UniProtKB/TrEMBL annotation:
InterPro entries noted in UniProt: Dimeric_a/b-barrel, Sec-metab_biosynth-assoc, YCII
Pfam family for this entry, one: YCII
Protein name in UniProt: YCII-related domain-containing protein
Residues annotated as domain YCII-related: 8-87
Entries under Gene3D superfamilies matching the protein: Dimeric alpha+beta barrel
Listed transmembrane segments: none
């Protein structure tokens, strides 16, 4: 079994005017899936982000523990925000974190 690593995901939202309605439609299923990944030990932390000045919704920040970036991408591609075109897939980032402080 491979050692789990820590990954941070930045999932910026699409910027079109219909994004908020697509997000609302997918949110319940999205949260249920994240809760399941948390229960399984893969998702450590996550939530929506917003602009500190305007309060405008900007994206999702998620922290996973998984064996690889490919495994994290697999979780993301099964998420309703992926299928519902809430996240901007072209700008989505998965980064490995080397923890030095916990």
């Amino acid at each position: 079994m491979a050692t789990k690593q820590t990954f941070v995901v930045w999932g910026p939202y699409q910027t079109d005017t219909e994004m908020l309605s697509r997000r609302a439609a997918a949110r319940t299923e999205h949260l249920a899936g994240l809760k399941q990944l948390g229960t399984q030990g893969f998702l450590k932390l996550g939530g929506p982000t917003s602009d500190p000045e305007s309060g405008e919704a900007k994206g999702s920040m998620l922290i996973y523990e998984a064996e690889s970036a490919a495994a994290v991408r697999g979780f993301l591609e099964k998420d309703p925000y992926w299928a519902g075109n809430v996240w901007d897939k072209e700008k989505l980032e998965i980064r490995l974190i080397t923890l030095t402080i916990q």
